[in-house]
Amino acid sequence: MGPFPITLTRHILQAQAAYPGATGEFSALMAQIGLAGKMIASDLRRAGLINILGYTGDTNVQGEAVKKLDEIANEIFVKVFQHSGLVCALASEEMEKPVKLEENWPKGKYMLLYDPLDGSSNTDVNMPLGTIFSVLRFEGKGGLPSDAELVRVGTEQVAAGYLMYGSSTMLVYTAGHGAHGFTLDPGVGEYLLSHEHIRMPAKGKVYATNEGNYHKWPAGTQRYVDYLKTQDSDGERPYSGRYSGCLAADVHRILLGGGVYLYPAETDKPEGKLRLLYEANPLAMVVEQAGGRASTGVEPILSIKPKAVHQRVPLVIGSREDVEIAEGFIQGHRTS
């Protein structure tokens, strides 16, 4: 019998041992994120059997219809981190204002921003869903953080990652020392290391985008997607199109196999659709730790200085060379 696989907790504790002064709080934080993922995965497996499908009739701060599972996933995160002593503030796609956890202050020095159920339109058709999260550290001494103190540039993230709920539940995270993937073993209830030090190919052969929006895109973006679909003489194109409607799942495919994901700016919506702080920033950190690149098409995602918690942003993310080529088209430097 071989050695027992490395669990998420063991992996983080081993990594922390290399840093003097590490307190173990981060290990506990990741364990709680993993717990929230287990609870959401459990609800998703039973979604067709219990009365949690469909819309609540409310809309979230983005003006989108809120599904019951979105609310449940959001509440799971709030309940998991209440009284945890780890997190002093939570910000989510489903909450207009951040939640300050007075019961965790002053011990809890982390702030957690998250999209609790990414791709929720996939719920009713048994397609992949995800959770995306970003971890910030709060060093303030004078009390709980203000809303503005959660609005940070992506380079200030201390950790980021996502959970993906599909045929198996996976947790992928980075704390700035590579990107690592763990698969949940439901039999023992543990996340086991399955993808250590993920490295993206410099160039891929897959693209993911919602081509139903093609007519809304600027000409440079249209030319880039046309380029991906045009056969070339050396056999590198056309690319294969793969799009699930779940950002975490589409980026996960590209993280492991290479390629490019686009949710670009639109002619009448130059700010894009995806949220910078709890979708683009965390995925950018993961992908860049794996050797990839994340951009608006004009500037690196992780260098954007945000102005609001729910700020939207265009996103081009994936293999380094693929994103650089996309930037060339979007900025008008190349046309073929």
Could you characterize what this model shows?
- With 336 residues, the protein is α+β, with helices and mostly antiparallel strands.
- The protein folds into two domains: 8-195, Fructose-1,6-Bisphosphatase, Chain A, domain 1 (2-Layer Sandwich), CATH 3.30.540; 206-330, D-Maltodextrin-Binding Protein, domain 2 (3-Layer(aba) Sandwich).
- The protein contains seven helices and 17 strands.
- The protein has helices spanning 8-16, 25-45, 68-81, 219-228, 247-257, 276-289, 320-330; strands spanning 55-59, 65-67, 87-92, 99-100, 110-118, 129-137, 159-165, 169-174, 179-185, 190-195, 206-208, 240-241, 260-263, 274-275, 293-295, 312-313, 315-318.
- Strands 4-3-5-6-7-8-9-10 form an eight-stranded mixed beta sheet, with helices on both faces.
- Helix 4 links the parallel strand 11 and strand 12 (240-241).
- Helix 1 (8-16) packs antiparallel against helix 2, helix 2 packs antiparallel against helix 3 and helix 4 crosses helix 7.
- The longest helix is centred in the first third of the chain and has 21 residues, at 25-45.
Which key terms come to mind for this protein?
single chain, 336 residues, alpha+beta, Fructose-1,6-Bisphosphatase, Chain A, domain 1, D-Maltodextrin-Binding Protein, domain 2, 2 domains, eight-stranded mixed sheet, five-stranded mixed sheet, 7 helices, globular
